[in-house]
Amino acid sequence: MDRRTFIKWSGFMTVSAASTTILSACGGGDDSPSSSSAAASGGPLSFSQGVASGDPQPDSVVLWTRVSGGDGIRDVNVGVQVSTTADFTSLVVNTTVAASADWDYTLRHQITGLSANTIYFYRFITGGVTSMTGRTWTLPASGQALTQLKFAVISCQDWSVNHWAAFDAMQNEDINFIVHVGNYVYEQIGITLPIQPARDPQHPAFKLPNGTALPDGSTYATTLADYRTLYMTYRSDPRLQRLHANWPMIAIWNDHEFSSDSWQDHETYTSAEAEQTARRRSANQAWFEFMPTNVTFNAANTSFQNIQIYRSFTFGNLATLVMTDERLYRAAHEVAEQVSGNPVGSRYFVPKATVDAAEQARLTASNNALTPVSMLGDTQRQWWQDQMSTATTTWKLWGNDVSLLRMQADMFAALTDALTQTVLQTAAGLGTFETQFHTAIQADLTAAVAGNLVPAPFTNLDTFARGLGFDEDDVQATIAALNTLIPPYSVLTTMLMNADQWDGYNAERLSLMSFLTNNSIRNVVALTGDLNAFAAGTVMNDFDAATPVPVMVDLVTAGISSTSLFTSYVTFVNNPANHLGWLGKVAPATGPNSLDTMLTSNNSWLAYADTNAQGYSVITLTPGTLTCNFRKLAPVSPTGQVPTAANAVASTRVVTVQANTAEVTVSPM
């Protein structure tokens, strides 16, 4: 097998060992392919997507760049230089590698033999052009005593909405590295929402080379060229380039690197949830090409599981970071979209009893094996358990795609409260009169649901109102109006807000929490994205137990720019096609953000929620405390101005976790 074929099928990771002596700045290594940069050029060569580094270890790091201007056929020679000084007078690597058209001229070059806990500088050179300078860092040696570790957590950076000023604001943060918990790109473009978030003027609309159109007028990435276009477009932003150039990144994917709410190689745009293996493989390859990761990829493997991205990192004696893949191995959602029997759908605001019954049916059919109800898959779950049980560090951090926190709502109680406020036109607390009014409505709805009485007669309310001297015509008009707000009785139950999260995979969550409890594994904190909201709370051993026991903590970071959970909720409720006026009464889409209140009041383990936010998190670890700063961003101004680095962060909320507890303390505003 020749060198080109070997690189093509082995995943194109090249490797250089750092020298123990200072190298000359001229010349290069002996690994250059035969083709020259000039001969391979299809135009002016450049590094227009910047540089990046990632997956640091105590003795190594992965460097990345992409050469623009290749002819699409021949390799391009690229020099790689690594130095202990920013002026590159102290080179420890000075070599040449080939950027291949097979991999879209992306380079993933691992440097080994580095010193632990050390800052290095790197750059790439080709055709007389030098890239921007990158700065990276190696991890502390295993077991090294650390007093502090600081890093940022980011997620959900949709090109098409809001802004990316966060990346400039982050340049002022004193951190060692960045954790990205998914949705680095968004596969669907051209989405039009009734309430359209403001768009970053630095982010023009773009087209995919191929793409597949959806009925709503949007297009989703389908081919390898489409997915490569997404990454090239996102990496063209100078703010994201500066972020990558300044810190190493440890990243996993979520759904949008392939397809919204995906599982394995299945899309969820349609109720058929069709397999799209070729599309999934294209998404896998593009992610592999463009992310500076040290992961296993096998292009010769014809399945969609041709890549393994779950892996772990150890930071001295202070922290272990376990990064998981919660899309490629997960089972189908518990409730199929076409049979959910729920006017909202199978994944959002789904009756908990429906999800529980579907999960139990699968468990029974599998003799209680977790395989058909798993998010991690059997192999990764065992690996996760091994990582947690063998970690000797104080903190065990979990890079986690979707929230572990139960997010439920008692829709019957919420609706009776909402109907009371609708009649009385008040959102204030209930006095004696209001309480009697509420009791009458509650009794009427209880009887109506039990007897499937449609419309609800509201006899108790009628009697109570007439007893107070209200006009009968007015009372009947009120009753008629209330009936227009009552949903199908099937949803007047405890609802799960999002069954695409761990709430839809409860059996495996129970198993993981039981494992941590039974093995006395403490100080486990999940670092989560996806929700497009800030949230912090305690993960219980069993959220349905009479007295749940705290096991670990989940810290959810809002998206960098993606549409907030509250905005999505408002858009959904206000869409007349959904006929969800009742949901708007439960958590009104106008006025104060009552979605926050609905979540915290229905979930005692949820210490904090801000569902109308974009932002990022900064984590500070010490042996005794984990401190998380939720940085909430200011929006694009009414005149279209994007915040500057100095004023991008509108507010910060601080939450802390003390070692050997599973409790979250939230600072006052």
From TrEMBL:
CDD domains: MPP_PhoD. It holds the Pfam family PhoD. InterPro entries: Metallo-depent_PP-like, PhoD-like_MPP, PhoD-like_sf, PhoD_N, Phospholipid_Metab_Enz. Residues 151-630 form the PhoD-like phosphatase metallophosphatase domain. SUPFAM superfamilies: Metallo-dependent phosphatases (SSF56300). Residues 49-138 form the Phospholipase D N-terminal domain. PANTHER family: ALKALINE PHOSPHATASE FAMILY PROTEIN (AFU_ORTHOLOGUE AFUA_5G03860) (PTHR43606:SF2), PHOSPHATASE, PUTATIVE (AFU_ORTHOLOGUE AFUA_6G08710)-RELATED (PTHR43606). This is Alkaline phosphatase D family protein. The lineage of its organism: Bacteria, Pseudomonadati, Pseudomonadota, Betaproteobacteria, Burkholderiales.
